[in-house]
Amino acid sequence: MSVLPRSEIKEVLRALTLDVDEYFASVENVFKQDGKSRYTSSYEPANHFWDQLPPELQETARVIINQLLPICATLADQAGSSPLTGTEDLQDIKIATKTMRTALRLRKYSYREPDAIHDEGAILGFRPADQSENYALFPIAAKREFEEHLSRLGGVLKLIEATASANPGVSLSVAVTEPAKYLTGTAFIMMWMDPQHPELSDVADAVRSVFRSFEVRAVRADDIEHEGLITERILNEIRTSEFLFADLTGMRPNVYYEIGYAHALGKRVILFRKSGTGLHFDLAGYNCPEYENLRDLREKLSKRLVSLTNRNPNEKNDI
């Protein structure tokens, strides 16, 4: 049974809080430059404040979001198995996650519960649940929204911890209760993606080519529908792919979190990195060979797959 320790969630959330405080402080400085005149109306279009942020602050928000989403998904998994939590706690986690994500983008997240339409006691119809993020949110209000819903996540975590205290011999870490099911002949590529670095696409093409020679279809996040974040679709690819490949070049936070999610599921990840790329301490103990160029990458990945599959596409079968 593979687990993700509960203490790790607390540590990541604690570190995340510091990053969020620093982010919102920088955002406040941007808008203080021109005084309060830029705080116009809470009914401004969704991107009113976001579009005024410098690119580096927008990237900071995206990095924080990429760190936040897997942690919330892990917490939801734990809440689903704890006897002190129920569907309402899972709903709180979902709403809190979406609220915090939109708050980091300086938008207002709204959610409306499903409801029956009544008229003098008669039920006329049913109004489904609805959600939106159509309006901009003042930076100071966005920070309050984030903190309020982060506190709600902390409340759910305390309920989970209470179960652990009552049953000290039982681990409430995220557990894979069933063997991971995967689709034969599939692979998912986790790596840095940036249109300003076309050489990254060449790396992805080289990896796809090697997997193809082993009759394995490899896809990258931009090959599937996604929103530029670690979405459920991407997490599903990690859960269901037979092979997982990760290139740590660029040391991107989202790649590290995707690898962490895979390890929490007990899945093995084929790690590589461009020569000269460092390793974070949490992966320092894993086999992560360097490659000098695309040819070197192809050769080393092919050897790794020969070892994993016990097949060699370069050898001709005798008939």
Task: Characterise this structure.
By secondary structure, the chain is an alpha/beta fold. Helices cover 48% and strands 17% of the residues. It has helices spanning 6-32, 55-81, 87-104, 139-166, 199-213, 232-240, 253-264, 294-309, and strands at residues 3-4, 107-112, 115-119, 122-127, 130-136, 174-175, 183-190, 217-220, 241-247, 270-274, 290-291. The chain has a five-stranded parallel β-sheet. The chain has a two-stranded antiparallel ribbon with strand order 1-6. It has a two-stranded antiparallel sheet with strand order 2-5. β7, α5 (199-213) and β8 form a beta-alpha-beta unit. It is globular and about 65 Å long. The protein starts with a strand and ends in a 10-residue tail after the last helix. The relative contact order is 0.11.
Give the oligomeric state of the chains in this entry, treating copies of one chain as homo and distinct chains as hetero. single chain
Element string (H = helix, E = strand): EHHHEEEEHEEHEHEHEEH
Q: Which structural class matches the secondary elements?
A: alpha/beta
The Cα radius of gyration reads: 23 Å
Helix percentage: 40-55%
In this structure, how is the largest beta sheet organized? 5 strands, parallel
Biggest β-sheet: strands ordered side by side in the sheet: 8-7-9-10-11
What amount of the residues lies in strands? 15-25%
The span between the termini is: 43 Å
